[in-house]
């Protein structure tokens, strides 16, 4: 599927969140997602307003906002309409089905009510999907499984990744793809088993940076070209590489977002041979 255009792939998807994401990418000519990992609502909304024109998706960690209230969500939704981007709360659920269903729908954040996409660690097994889908599927939400992580020494390798892909294949109505570093088409197939031609999982990839190779806490970065062209991933997720250390530098942040967007789209165009 990675050699087909985002537009073509949107036509074959069944999940509304997957369709929305692919159509947004095509419309905005952007495969850039910005991860806005700041702790103050004021900075959070300001950064989103600045990078909004350049992104297909905004990724949040809503639980790190120290002055959170549901007003933030209304403003996030307004910005999502203003700039035409999809919302992905990076919650990384990892508990039993009953608990994740409650964490997803309830509590302070009520994630299922506003986030088009969320994600889960496959570690509990298929029950994590069952739990989350009970709250998310009726609302047209989509789920990503963390098949691989970007960090040094991650345990998400080999059989773990294969099992994650098998879990996703069994729930293609709700699981729209993976947080991963590579494509997953051939992964987890039994010997002699052929890949289903219609299977098309989206690969969203964090650990992207142009300047640094990593940070002091185990993060590892690859470039947009490595991620989109060489590894065939669909969306590149960039955090500190774009919002940097000073949220008031809005011109710099906008310029960085534009640069990443252009590099990501050029890598995609080389991949699918854009006309
Ligand atoms: N993230 C990773 N690696 C993973 C999964 N998720 O970095 O394997 C998330 C982090 C952070 C963002 O939680 O929000 O992606 C990366 O931020 P950065 O670009 O500032 O390193």
Question: What are the salient characteristics of this protein?
Answer:
globular; alpha/beta; 14% strand; eight-stranded parallel barrel
Give an overview of the whole structure.
One of its GO terms (molecular function) is orotidine-5'-phosphate decarboxylase activity. The active site is at 90 (for ompdecase activity), 92 (for ompdecase activity), 95 (for ompdecase activity). This is Orotidine 5'-phosphate decarboxylase. There is one protein chain. This protein is of the alpha/beta class. Helices cover 40% and strands 14% of the residues. Strands 1-2-3-4-5-6-7-8 form an 8-stranded parallel β-barrel, surrounded by 6 helices. The mean pLDDT is 97. Helix 5 (97-105) runs parallel beside helix 6 (127-136). The structure holds 6-AZA uridine 5'-monophosphate.
For the termini, the CA-CA separation is 18 Å
Low-confidence parts: none
Percent range for helical residues? 40-55%
Which class of secondary structure composition applies to the elements? alpha/beta
Largest sheet: 8 strands, parallel, barrel
Give a list of the ligands: 6-AZA uridine 5'-monophosphate
Helix-strand sequence: HHEHEHEHEHEHEEHEHH
Strand order of the largest sheet: 1-2-3-4-5-6-7-8
Radius of gyration: 18 Å
Principal-axis shape equals globular
Brief rundown of the structure:
Helix content is 40%, strand content 14%. It has 275 residues and is of the alpha/beta class.
